[in-house]
């Protein structure tokens, strides 16, 4: 980023990065846009004067597929001295594509897994599909940026049987929140809810109250995407204690969706469905469908990234000028609050074993070079005067910036960890962002991380695919009223007595001790 707004931006980001992170940037940071990169290269190969490094990626796409020859991507590749060959797969289809690619054996050089415990990923690792990076990385002393600018404890989370196979995709832990149409609450004289029961009651009044004034009872209370609500699953589970470890009588750690806490949440959703609050297509809706519905004022609530509040508020204003989208404060439930902290790594980058050893080192050099605050700033705001303009000491995206500097821009490097970037909206005014940061600051204090986003079990990886679809079908039937809750509970109890799953629970318990030592 250009120096004349750097000071202002640092004021926004004050306290975000640790001293160690800043030290890592000073040792091997990216240049300001337009400056010279004089940083020493880690690893084995100094490629400063070399031809661009060609890198082949398979990554999820969360926006329109970018033009890799536009201003943003041209500058990115120039700064990194790379030529990127990226296959962008719509995020809603990515897991399916990921599994198909692994099954084919025709792997790209670098592939993203959005879940470090995905069974197909773990199987592929054990079958030797990816490089063991442990000998390359060592104690990370040669890679200070990746060491100092990564999320808390993230390199420990990356280990599988004591070895590191992936490069973390650093992401803030404050990320998701329950969105609500504040203008609709105001229209119906409803206070902002503070408990999940108040939340449900408000939604019932909204779906029955014709908040958009079109004379039809067509407003949906809660939407989501995938099973159960995908991004919203852990968020609501937190209110029922669903993010806390639950052990069986043998000391095994029960998988989160098979705990009594999760079953209590299923029962809660059952009531919401019966009241016409939960979208009828909740288990099959695609992410793109849900986004379009929320952006066009057809739903009251949706759990997604906090930064999207401003974007969707502006979209809704096009047809509903008084629209106001807020993220709710933590809602109290019978077992906790509705805040889930994100895994500090949103999956990881894995390098195909077909890549020559010398190029593995070059790829690691690329990740080391870009895991800095400077590259993350550029990734967020692009080129000053092209993609952003500085307003009140904070860069704001221009129309071209909104088009080119999308969330896809951070799919090809690790980012430098901070806890605000999923709250700040690069298109929003500084006052709006400052207020939003203050509103959700409490999330980091009360939220919990789902341990199953970290821990693993070989037995679970092998066995659960036999039961997963059946369990999803049973949970869906329970929610829509096709079976009773007693029938659903009996089904879950039967699963929990399965000898293979009980073995998996013991493995989860051992894994938990490794990743979450007391």
Brief rundown of the structure:
The protein is an alpha/beta fold.
Please characterize this protein's 3D structure:
This protein is an alpha/beta fold and 518 residues long. It contains 23 helices and 15 strands. The strands form five sheets. Strands 2-1-3-12-6 form a five-stranded mixed sheet. A four-stranded mixed sheet has the order 8-9-7-10. A two-stranded antiparallel sheet has the order 4-5. Mean pLDDT is 90; it is low at 1-48.
Number of helices, counting only DSSP H or I runs of 4 residues or more: 23
Which geometry do the CA atoms define? globular
Write down the overall mean pLDDT: 90
Q: Evaluate the radius of gyration.
A: 23 Å
Name a few traits of the molecule.
single chain, 518 residues, 23 helices, 15 strands
What is the fold's blueprint, element by element?
Blueprint: H1 3-12, H2 19-28, E1 53-61, H3 71-80, E2 82-90, H4 94-104, E3 110-113, H5 119-126, H6 134-137, H7 144-148, H8 154-157, E4 159-160, E5 163-164, E6 166-170, E7 176-181, H9 182-187, H10 196-208, E8 220-223, H11 231-239, H12 260-274, H13 287-295, E9 299-305, H14 308-317, E10 325-327, E11 340-341, E12 345-351, H15 357-370, H16 373-381, E13 388-391, E14 394-397, H17 399-404, H18 430-440, H19 443-446, E15 448-449, H20 458-463, H21 468-480, H22 485-496, H23 499-515
Parallel strand pairs: 1-2, 1-3, 8-9, 11-15
Antiparallel strand pairs: 3-12, 4-5, 6-12, 7-9, 7-10, 13-14
Helix pairs in contact: 12-21, 21-22
């Amino acid at each position: 980023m250009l120096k004349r707004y750097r000071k202002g931006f640092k004021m926004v980001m004050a306290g975000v990065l640790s001293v160690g992170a800043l030290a890592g940037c000073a040792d091997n940071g990216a240049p300001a846009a337009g400056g010279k990169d004089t940083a020493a290269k880690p690893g084995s190969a100094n490629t400063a004067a070399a031809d661009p490094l060609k890198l082949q990626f398979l990554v999820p796409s969360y926006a329109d597929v970018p033009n890799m020859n536009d201003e943003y991507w041209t500058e990115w590749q120039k700064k990194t001295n790379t030529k990127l060959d990226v296959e962008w797969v719509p995020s809603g289809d990515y897991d399916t594509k990921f599994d198909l690619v692994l099954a084919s054996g025709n792997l790209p050089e670098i592939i993203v897994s959005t879940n470090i415990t995905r069974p197909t990923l773990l199987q592929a690792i054990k079958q030797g599909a990816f490089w063991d990076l442990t000998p390359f990385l060592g104690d990370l002393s040669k890679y200070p940026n990746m060491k100092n600018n990564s999320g808390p404890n993230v390199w420990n989370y990356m280990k599988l049987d004591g070895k590191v196979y992936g490069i973390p995709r650093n992401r803030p832990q404050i990320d998701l929140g329950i969105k609500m149409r504040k203008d609709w609450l105001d229209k119906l004289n409803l206070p902002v809810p503070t408990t999940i029961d108040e939340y449900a009651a408000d939604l019932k009044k909204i779906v029955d109250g014709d908040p958009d004034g079109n004379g039809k009872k067509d407003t949906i209370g809660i939407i989501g995407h995938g099973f159960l609500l995908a991004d919203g699953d852990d968020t609501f589970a937190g209110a029922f204690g669903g993010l806390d470890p639950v052990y069986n009588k043998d000391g095994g750690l029960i998988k989160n969706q098979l705990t009594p806490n999760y079953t209590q949440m299923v029962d809660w959703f059952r009531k919401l469905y019966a009241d016409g609050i939960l979208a009828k297509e909740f288990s099959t809706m695609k992410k793109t469908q849900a986004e379009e519905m929320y952006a066009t004022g057809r739903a009251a609530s949706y759990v997604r990234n906090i930064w999207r509040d401003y974007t969707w508020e502006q979209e809704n204003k096009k047809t509903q000028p008084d629209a106001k989208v807020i993220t709710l404060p933590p809602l109290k439930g019978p077992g906790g609050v509705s805040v889930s902290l994100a895994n500090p790594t949103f999956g990881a980058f894995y390098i195909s074993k077909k890549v020559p050893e010398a190029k593995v080192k070059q790829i690691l050099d690329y990740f080391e070079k870009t895991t800095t605050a400077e590259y993350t700033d550029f990734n967020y705001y692009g080129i000053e005067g092209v993609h952003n303009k500085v307003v009140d000491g904070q860069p704001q995206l221009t129309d071209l910036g909104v088009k080119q500097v999308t969330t896809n821009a951070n799919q090809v490097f690790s980012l430098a960890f901070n806890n605000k970037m999923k709250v700040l909206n690069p298109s929003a005014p500084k006052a709006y962002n400052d207020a939003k940061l203050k509103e959700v600051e409490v999330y980091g204090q009360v939220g919990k991380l789902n341990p199953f986003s970290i821990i693993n079990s070989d037995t679970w990886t092998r066995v659960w695919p036999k039961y997963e679809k059946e369990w999803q079908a049973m949970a869906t039937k329970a929610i829509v009223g096709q079976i009773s809750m007693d029938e659903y509970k009996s089904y879950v109890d039967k699963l929990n007595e399965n000898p293979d799953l009980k073995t998996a629970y013991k493995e989860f318990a051992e894994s938990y001790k490794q990743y979450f030592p007391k």
